[in-house]
Design brief:
This protein has 3 domains: 125 residues, Methane Monooxygenase Hydroxylase, Chain G, domain 1 (Up-down Bundle), CATH 1.20.58; 151 residues, 2-Layer Sandwich (Alpha-Beta Plaits), CATH 3.30.70.1660; 66 residues, 2-Layer Sandwich (Double Stranded RNA Binding Domain). The chain is 46% helix and 18% strand. It contains 11 helices and 11 strands. The strands form 2 sheets. The protein has an 8-stranded mixed beta sheet, with helices on both faces. A 3-stranded antiparallel beta sheet has the order 6-7-8, with helices on one face. Strand 2 and strand 3 form a beta hairpin. It is flat. The termini are far apart.
Length: 397
């Protein structure tokens, strides 16, 4: 309404308003690269052969919709900035009509709120979604230092992620496991399928540390053990090209529990990828073909993860952090049983609800990690400093 009244009264902008508007709009990154990309996608969608590849067409259409909204929101921010500049200048103009000054004063708070909402939406849209976020996920949990206690905690982490997956309506498919003498896991590999699995679990990669009194400890001393977790986006054959000549496949008889059928046939499969040295084994199924298929799924996922990490290191080295990097050289999280405490050392998050977390109630942790990642990407986008990471708190070391 204020803009209409200003037009009717002939009130014009001055150079001060123009300067203010330019400075405020400079806070947002340049929209031109996004506009050019939108134009490119529009041209692709206009081609007669666009729908020949349905999967590619769907990806282009989704990106086109996202960029269309982004450009529209950016224009809206510009419009609101102009109205704000006019309103603020009019509010300070002692020669203006009293009614106009009152209208300007009344509209400024709402315009500021609208600008804030749209500006955040624009910045969020300028951060491209990670292509792997919608993928299913292969998780690998391995006992680290601590012997039997580490393997027991590996089993507890498997249970925790399984219950979290159940709560989100995802499905768990075991792929490979090695059981310890005390009933824990030396290693367990499993596939989680569902909506946006990797988006929620990708920050779980790293070393998980547990501090507690083991059941075998007679003197009540607290022991520290570690478990490593790897989170891999499931790769399809079209994502990773594997030359069969690069593979060395060996079969053997499976060992361990499972009945006579498991132990009397050459069903266990081990695949060596010569160029990278990656080795994958699978022996959970009685069928050699099924074990080979599962081993290839894990191998493709590991190769895809490796490729993504190399690209991230090459193009975004300044923003890399323990979050999402899968770096296992340092602990990412501590589970302290005597204090009923969980601490995520990457973001300084400390919670005192350890039993609930181990029952699969991970949402608070996952959301905090996602928010920290978003803030860091946002700071890089606008050229600011990322938020300071916490050290873990509670004197933890």
């Amino acid at each position: 309404m204020l803009v209409a009244i200003l037009g009717a009264t002939g009130w014009s902008r001055n150079s001060q308003i123009s300067t203010l508007f330019t400075r405020q709009m400079d806070e947002l990154p340049d929209i031109l690269p996004f506009q050019r990309r939108l134009d490119e996608l529009s041209a692709q969608m206009a081609e007669a052969s666009f729908y020949a590849l349905p999967r590619r067409a769907a990806e282009v259409t989704r990106e086109h919709q996202r960029l269309t909204q982004l450009v529209s929101d950016h224009r809206q921010v510009g419009r609101i900035e102009r109205e704000l500049a006019e309103a603020r200048e009019l509010e300070r103009d002692s020669a203006a009509y009293t009614l106009l000054r009152e209208l300007a004063l009344a509209e400024i708070p709402e315009l500021e709120r609208a600008r804030g909402r749209l500006r955040e939406a624009v910045l969020q849209a300028m951060i491209p979604p990670e292509a792997s976020d919608s993928r299913n996920t292969v998780m690998e949990i391995r006992a680290g230092t601590g012997g039997d206690e580490a393997s027991l905690f590996a089993a507890e982490l498997f249970r925790m992620y399984s219950k979290y997956a159940d709560g989100r309506g995802w499905r768990i498919q075991p792929m490979s496991s090695s059981v310890s003498e005390r009933g824990g896991f030396k290693e367990v590999i499993f596939l989680i399928t569902g909506d946006n699995v990797y988006r929620y679990l990708k920050f779980e990669s790293g070393v998980h540390r547990v501090q507690r009194v083991p059941v075998t400890e007679a003197n009540g001393r607290i022991h520290t053990s570690t478990v490593t977790v790897a989170v891999l986006p499931e790769a399809e054959e079209v994502d990773v090209e594997i030359n069969p000549q690069d593979l060395e496949i060996t079969v053997s008889r499976a060992s361990g529990p499972g009945g006579q059928g498991v132990n009397t046939t050459d069903s266990a499969v081990q695949i060596l990828h010569r160029p990278t040295g990656l080795i994958v084994s699978c022996a959970d199924e009685r069928s050699q073909l099924k074990n080979k298929a599962r081993a290839m799924t894990v191998l493709r996922s590991r190769l895809l993860k490796r490729r993504e990490e190399e690209e991230r290191a090459r193009y975004a080295a300044t923003r890399r952090s323990q979050i999402g990097s899968g770096d296992r050289s340092e602990r990412i999280r501590t589970y302290n049983f005597p204090q009923n405490r969980l601490t995520d050392h990457r973001i300084g998050l400390t919670l005192y609800n350890l039993p609930q977390v181990l029952e699969g109630e991970l949402e608070e942790v996952v959301q905090a990690l996602q928010q920290a990642d978003f803030q860091e990407k946002m700071a890089a986008l606008v050229g600011g400093s990322p938020p300071v990471r916490g050290s873990g708190g509670d004197g933890d070391s």
